Amino acid sequence: MPESKPRKKPAYTPPPTSKKEKANPAWLVPTMLTLMVVGLVWVVTTYVTRTEFPVPGIGNWNLAIGFVLMIAGFVLTTRWR
């Protein structure tokens, strides 16, 4: 009995990707670095002055402010490409 001809299957070619890599906004990196450095300086100043400065009278809340600034800088790193 004669054999049927096998179908020729084309080789798989993935669809072309049309995603363009977006650039960072110009404000992102300076803002990110500024927040992290200001937060670090805030926390160091709080420890060195025994919670008297940078804002007198709020005590350990100075640490919270410093850490919030640093965390905000780290959150911005997730948008960095």
Automatic annotation (TrEMBL):
Major place of residence: membrane
Region (Disordered): 1-23
Cell compartments where the protein resides: Cell membrane
Stored InterPro entries: CrgA
GO biological process, one term: cell division
Record keyword Coiled coil present: no
Skewed-composition ranges (Basic residues): 1-10
Transmembrane recorded as keyword: yes
Membrane spanning stretches: 27-49, 61-80
Keywords, comma-separated and alphabetical: Cell cycle, Cell division, Cell membrane, Membrane, Transmembrane, Transmembrane helix
Protein task: Involved in cell division.
Family of this protein: Belongs to the CrgA family.
Protein name stated in the entry: Cell division protein CrgA
Species the sequence originates in: Cellulomonas bogoriensis 69B4 = DSM 16987
